[in-house]
Amino acid sequence: MDYSVVDPDELEPTEDRDCDLRRVSEAAGLENVAINRFRAEPGEQLPLAYHYHEQQEEAFIVRSGTLHVETPDGEFEVPAGSVFAVQPEAPQRAYNPADAEAAIEVFAIGAPPVSGDAVAYDPEE
């Protein structure tokens, strides 16, 4: 049997991101799910762009603050202790608004852990 204890604060942050992103799944030796920890200061977004995933389901678990998620159906406010779930092909952009009082901390869980299935989404099109 294999077990892991991972402190995201001990992981190296991913470069070239708007916010602090720590990739937990690899450090934990997980192959069938992607787990990331995000910390976003006011005015920062979690993903690199408004997007959707072709295959991956995602769940955003908000540990602190209020996550804002822009979608074609409107904007969602997700308070601490709540989960925001996204089905494949559902466009979204998660962020911490510029007028927020504090940083937010969010764990994102995605399955399957595919790479390259994120598709940019333009809400104007």
Structural account:
There is one protein chain. The longest helix has 5 residues, at 24-28. With 125 residues, the protein is mainly beta. The protein is built from one helix and ten strands; from the N terminus they run βαβββββββββ. Strand 5 (66-71) and strand 6 (74-79) form a beta hairpin. The strands form three sheets. Strands 1-2-9-4-7 form a five-stranded antiparallel β-sheet. It has one helix at residues 24-28; strands at 20-23, 34-40, 51-53, 57-64, 66-71, 74-79, 83-86, 93-95, 104-111, 118-120.
Q: What's the layout of helices and strands?
A:
Blueprint: E1 20-23, H1 24-28, E2 34-40, E3 51-53, E4 57-64, E5 66-71, E6 74-79, E7 83-86, E8 93-95, E9 104-111, E10 118-120
Antiparallel strand pairs: 1-2, 2-9, 3-10, 4-7, 4-9, 5-6, 5-8
Give a summary of the structure in a few sentences.
4% of the residues lie in helices and 42% in strands.
Which terms summarize this structure?
single chain; 125 residues; mainly beta; five-stranded antiparallel beta sheet; three-stranded antiparallel beta sheet
Largest sheet: 5 strands, antiparallel
How many DSSP E strands? 10
User: SSE order in H/E notation?
Assistant: EHEEEEEEEEE
Tally of contiguous helical segments: 1
Q: Any idea what the shape is?
A: globular
Strand content: 35-45%
Radius of gyration, in angstroms, nearest whole number: 14 Å
The strand line-up of the biggest sheet is 1-2-9-4-7
* Alpha-beta content class: mainly beta
Mean pLDDT over all positions: 94
Helix content: under 10%
Alpha carbon gap, first and last residue: 49 Å
* Low-pLDDT segments, ≥5 res: none
